[in-house]
């Protein structure tokens, strides 16, 4: 049986691709980002509407509502304002309005896994209660592509719902463990449009491989981004930013890659800090503080190895550090 689905906050069209392969038909799509909307049209020959706040009244009857509503308010990498986020916090309300208006039989929603933990679980309970008030039986699972043989670790919270209950629904059983998937399974060894890496990029890769080879074999690779600029850095970041303290008042500390700030002008101090630490704000968001802390702790654990290696990246472009 062919079902009609709508694709809200459509992005590149992951929901569309999956449901179309199952024989179902997209009757409406919405994507605010113009570049993503253009790619969506190219991929599926469907022109997405823009902001759902303006387009929700144009949504036609459908059987399945798909929505990957913006994750920034709930992500650990953001301010975690949730539904109070002034930019995106109200968008879930439009999902509810569409569900209430058209009463599709099924819903399929995805977001970041932190949605489950956000506000000590209260956010998920609020979502669940509001969906149940519209007569949907709902359940939540956490899945990642690698569990099904796709070489990507990207866990997502998946919310499924049905008006006629979920007695016949079971979550898919993972077919793979993380150690059973490899990026080599999706790489084309001889692509027609391949371009060789320049010598500088090869140097970046080889130099970083040297560090990986020098680390203890029992040291797991960090799950956080490696910010080498923090290796040896001591500038303050917890309570106030360098900007808030004053760039001319932190010369007793060290900047990016452990460079001394002593004797530098305020402008020189600013330029010696990592670009992400020069923000003209009074405090860093919690996620940035955590990344800085984790990288400095990583450096302290492996100081002997890193200090011998660090001069090799001193002239690297900041983004390769």
UniProtKB/TrEMBL annotation:
<keyword id="KW-0808">Transferase</keyword>
<dbReference type="Pfam" id="PF00145">
    <property type="entry name" value="DNA_methylase"/>
</dbReference>
<dbReference type="GO" id="GO:0009307">
    <property type="term" value="P:DNA restriction-modification system"/>
</dbReference>
<dbReference type="InterPro" id="IPR001525">
    <property type="entry name" value="C5_MeTfrase"/>
</dbReference>
<keyword id="KW-0680">Restriction system</keyword>
<keyword id="KW-0489">Methyltransferase</keyword>
<dbReference type="GO" id="GO:0003886">
    <property type="term" value="F:DNA (cytosine-5-)-methyltransferase activity"/>
</dbReference>
<dbReference type="GO" id="GO:0032259">
    <property type="term" value="P:methylation"/>
</dbReference>
<feature type="active site">
    <location>
        <position position="71"/>
    </location>
</feature>
<dbReference type="InterPro" id="IPR018117">
    <property type="entry name" value="C5_DNA_meth_AS"/>
</dbReference>
<protein>
    <recommendedName>
        <fullName>Cytosine-specific methyltransferase</fullName>
        <ecNumber>2.1.1.37</ecNumber>
    </recommendedName>
</protein>
<comment type="similarity">
    <text>Belongs to the class I-like SAM-binding methyltransferase superfamily. C5-methyltransferase family.</text>
</comment>
<dbReference type="InterPro" id="IPR029063">
    <property type="entry name" value="SAM-dependent_MTases_sf"/>
</dbReference>
<dbReference type="GO" id="GO:0003677">
    <property type="term" value="F:DNA binding"/>
</dbReference>
<keyword id="KW-0949">S-adenosyl-L-methionine</keyword>
<dbReference type="GO" id="GO:0044027">
    <property type="term" value="P:negative regulation of gene expression via chromosomal CpG island methylation"/>
</dbReference>
<dbReference type="InterPro" id="IPR050390">
    <property type="entry name" value="C5-Methyltransferase"/>
</dbReference>
């Amino acid at each position: 049986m062919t079902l009609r689905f709508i694709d809200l906050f459509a992005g590149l069209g992951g929901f569309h691709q999956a449901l179309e392969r199952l024989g179902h038909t997209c009757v409406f799509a919405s994507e605010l980002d113009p570049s993503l909307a253009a790619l969506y049209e190219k991929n599926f020959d469907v022109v997405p509407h823009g902001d759902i706040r303006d387009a929700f009244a144009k949504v036609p009857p459908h059987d399945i509502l798909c929505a990957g509503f913006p994750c920034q308010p709930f992500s650990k990498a953001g301010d975690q304002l949730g539904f109070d986020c002034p930019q995106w916090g109200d968008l879930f309300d439009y999902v509810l309005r569409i569900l209430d208006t058209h009463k599709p039989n099924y819903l399929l929603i995805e977001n970041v896994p932190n949605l489950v933990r956000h506000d000590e679980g209260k956010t998920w309970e609020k979502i669940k209660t509001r969906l149940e008030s519209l007569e949907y039986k709902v359940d939540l699972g956490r899945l990642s592509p690698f569990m099904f043989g796709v070489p990507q670790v990207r866990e997502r919270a998946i919310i499924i719902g049905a008006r006629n209950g979920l007695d016949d629904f079971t979550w898919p059983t993972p077919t793979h463990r993380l150690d059973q998937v490899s990026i080599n399974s999706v790489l084309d060894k001889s692509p027609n449009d391949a371009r060789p890496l320049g010598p500088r990029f090869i140097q970046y890769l080889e130099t970083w491989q040297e560090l990986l080879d020098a680390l203890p074999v029992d040291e797991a690779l960090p799950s956080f981004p490696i910010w080498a600029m923090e290796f040896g850095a001591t500038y303050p970041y917890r309570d106030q930013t360098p900007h808030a303290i004053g760039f001319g008042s932190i010369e007793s500390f060290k900047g990016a890659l452990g460079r001394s700030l002593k004797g530098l002008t305020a402008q020189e101090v600013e330029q010696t800090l990592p670009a992400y630490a020069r923000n003209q704000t009074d405090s860093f968001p919690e996620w940035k503080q955590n990344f800085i802390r984790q990288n400095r702790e990583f450096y302290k654990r492996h100081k002997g190895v890193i200090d011998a290696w660090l001069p090799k990246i001193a002239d690297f472009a900041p983004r390769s550090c």
